[in-house]
Amino acid sequence: MYKSEFDKQIQSRAITNALLFYGESSFLIDMYTEMMSNIEDASILKFYHNEYDFNSAKAHLSQASLFGDRNILIIKSEKKVPKKELDVLFDYCEKNTDNIFIYAYYGEDHKSYAKAYDAKKVMNVRFFHPKDFEAQNIVLALAHEKKVQIDKYSVAHLLHIHNGNVALACNELDKLKVYDKVITTNDINHLVHGLAEVNMDDFFKKILAKKDFLHDLENILEHGEDEIRILTAFTSYVTQLYMFNIYIRVHGAANGMDILGYPAPKFVVDEKAALSLKFKPQTYYKLHDLLLESELKMKSSSVDKSAILLSTLIRIQKLL
């Protein structure tokens, strides 16, 4: 089923105690996992990604709570849990309706879960990226919960600044709630540094492609970025590419979860994997050596940081 149908089931209190969440929106998967496991005094066991252990999971669902409360099992993983093991865990939920099992799958093999289980026993819910009005409603609801005074127009502007990324927009609410006033679009322009203004990854890719980057650099600096932060962010980006390069040379293919530690979209993983292979290990060594040397110079007193940054980026392109 989809989110709209699942919401109706929640309203009518017709939810099963076995839930399988998957789809394109990691934000909504996280949101509904938190919502459905927010039960007072419950005993919760969570497994994140590679931590999953079948015997421990089975033991948690099979045992009765020591204090008569509910046992909740949550598995969050980009890798698929074997179906035989899922079947056993879901069966335990059917035998003991006081316990809850939520399997949050962040991988891309959605088809295998679409009709995998009887909806009366296991509710399979696919979450797509929220549409504009859905995203606004999510942010508005959270703003109300956090007592942030903001209207739908300002929320729409906040989402626009973050390229529609609901998670980033929601994260900004903690920053905005400290202001005891109605938040306007002007406040957001002043307080929020968004993805739509400057895309650092695109800037870094332009440098590595040996393209002209001067206008982009001026734009980034005008938006208040510090030269040292730009340099260290670029160092982190190059380091990440090197990790992709090493992993692919060892394993033959990239695995976003193993390399990044979180479930990145497939197109991001594929793009970074392809870019990482354009440079040899010796080139990565030279890049890191130059970047660290420049960072040390920048942190010395009475230096022109902008000049050092520009010089470093030009030298980087000569190394490629």
Encode the helix/strand succession as letters: HEHEHEHEHEHHHHHHHHHHH
* CATH architectural type of the largest domain: 3-Layer(aba) Sandwich
- The total beta strand count reads 5
Chain-averaged pLDDT = 86
Number of helices: 16
Q: What about the largest sheet?
A: 5 strands, parallel
Radius of gyration, in Å, reads 24 Å
Under CATH at level 1, the class of the largest domain stands as Alpha Beta
> Beta fraction of the residues?
5-15%
Q: What distance separates the N and C termini?
A: 49 Å
Count of domains: 3
Secondary structure class reads alpha/beta
Stretches where pLDDT falls below 50 for ≥5 residues?
none
Describe it for me?
The chain has a five-stranded parallel β-sheet, sandwiched between helices. It has helices at residues 3-11, 26-37, 54-62, 83-95, 111-114, 132-145, 152-161, 166-176, 185-191, 200-208, 214-222, 227-251, 256-260, 266-276, 281-298, 305-319, and strands at 18-23, 43-48, 71-77, 100-105, 123-127. The chain has three domains: 3-127, P-loop containing nucleotide triphosphate hydrolases (Rossmann fold), CATH 3.40.50; 132-191; 200-319, Zinc Finger, Delta Prime, domain 3, CATH 1.20.272. The protein is globular, with a radius of gyration of 24 Å. It has 320 residues and is of the alpha/beta class. The chain is built from 16 helices and five strands.
